[in-house]
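User: Okay, second chain of the day. Same drill as before: sequence in, structure tokens out.
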Amino acid sequence: MKNSELMNKMSRGLHKMAFGLKKRSPEILVAIGIAGAVASAVMACKATTKIDDILEETKDKLDKIQECADNSDMEDEYSADDAKKDTAIVYAHTGVKLAKLYGPAISVGILSISSILASNVILRKEGKALAAAYAVLGQGFKEYRSRVMERFGSEVDRQLKYNIKVTEVEEIVTDEKGKEKKVKKTIETADPNVSGYLRYLTRSNPNWEENSDFVEMFLQAQQNYANDKLRAIGHLTLNDVYDMLGMPDTKAGMVVGWIYDLDCPNGDNYVEFDVKKAYIPNERGEYEEAYAIDFNVDGNIYNKMA
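Assistant: Same drill. Structure tokens below.
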């Protein structure tokens, strides 16, 4: 029993090691390629130090052939055709010697390039696999949301998506006599850490204005500008829109965005900011007004663009 368990443990360990090597194979291949390229350069430099001897020997042989060919006393014994044949033989022998001299360096260089190219092939396959998994996940989430809205309505879907909760807070107000007093107020609060592409425009944003009309005008203007840019260049990343709104870029925003193609639509062919007012907690733990902005991205546009 103990032997069986030991064998199973060893088997699991070996398979885990093999999986780890497979997982890190792109990095390993790149490292091998870089090391091989350096080794190839070193080998080529060493080979170059020996090339003078080969070239000098070749020159001596060619000089002798030319000397015999120019000697009129040897015309009957050594013709011009003989000189051409010997010259070809000398060049062939020199080529073989050079191939032997630089062959190892060239072979190592070819293997190094092959390792780097193989790493790129693996990474591209992994990228396609991740994109396919993302597409399946995104489609599943859309279908789930449609079922939620169909059964419970769009308001319940909004509350679940933004993790909206009803919260009672105290607010200081001034009455008609100029006296301040605390009153209780019920507000809907949203979770600022909800995952996805949702972003909040708060007082910390350089485009914030206390006048809500100005903020709404700004957001509408930026949405119009984003659509103009989308139609002009045919694609737009989420980071492009984040920059328009004065928001920090994200890693996902580099590849996620919109595509404009009326002949073969990959999405909505327009940019839309789904803007909702919300209350979120600030650094002091107090709730402050903000604008929740959700974007109708088409998904990973790099895999959808031709």
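The radius of gyration is 36 Å.

User: Thanks, on to the next one.
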